[in-house]
Amino acid sequence: MAPRPLTLSLSKGHPELVEGSGRAYIGRMEQQTVTLSPSAAARVAAIASKQGKPAILRLAVEGGGCSGFQYKFGLADAPDADDSVAETDGVKLLVDSVSLDLVQGCVVDFVESLGGAAFRVENPNAAAGCGCGSSFSV
């Protein structure tokens, strides 16, 4: 009797072996669906250090804003059970499972210009956005 092939399936970042591929994987594999840029990571680290908090940024999406949805940023103490976690330069970016559908594939950046400094989300899922960049529609 030949051994049955196995496939690695990711469930909230936790690997599970399932039948089908012929390969077995050992260890933890992360599927990064949201990216934190190095400039955003540096800014989060600086803010967190001043406030005496861990360098963990939470990105959430809420209804509202001029385009239908708006981004919400805040420092977090630790990841929740349903969070997806991305890490850049030791700084973590958390996204809850509901918001992840709307920001999958995005890059969170920190930009400084003459108009000010802000976190910006480059979201490939957004069909339209507002001028300030804090709200979007899909």
From TrEMBL:
<dbReference type="InterPro" id="IPR016092">
    <property type="entry name" value="ATAP"/>
</dbReference>
<dbReference type="InterPro" id="IPR000361">
    <property type="entry name" value="ATAP_core_dom"/>
</dbReference>
<dbReference type="GO" id="GO:0051537">
    <property type="term" value="F:2 iron, 2 sulfur cluster binding"/>
</dbReference>
<feature type="domain" description="Core">
    <location>
        <begin position="34"/>
        <end position="133"/>
    </location>
</feature>
<dbReference type="InterPro" id="IPR035903">
    <property type="entry name" value="HesB-like_dom_sf"/>
</dbReference>
<dbReference type="Pfam" id="PF01521">
    <property type="entry name" value="Fe-S_biosyn"/>
</dbReference>
<dbReference type="GO" id="GO:0005506">
    <property type="term" value="F:iron ion binding"/>
</dbReference>
<protein>
    <submittedName>
        <fullName>HesB/YadR/YfhF</fullName>
    </submittedName>
</protein>
<dbReference type="GO" id="GO:0051539">
    <property type="term" value="F:4 iron, 4 sulfur cluster binding"/>
</dbReference>
<dbReference type="GO" id="GO:0016226">
    <property type="term" value="P:iron-sulfur cluster assembly"/>
</dbReference>
<dbReference type="InterPro" id="IPR017870">
    <property type="entry name" value="FeS_cluster_insertion_CS"/>
</dbReference>
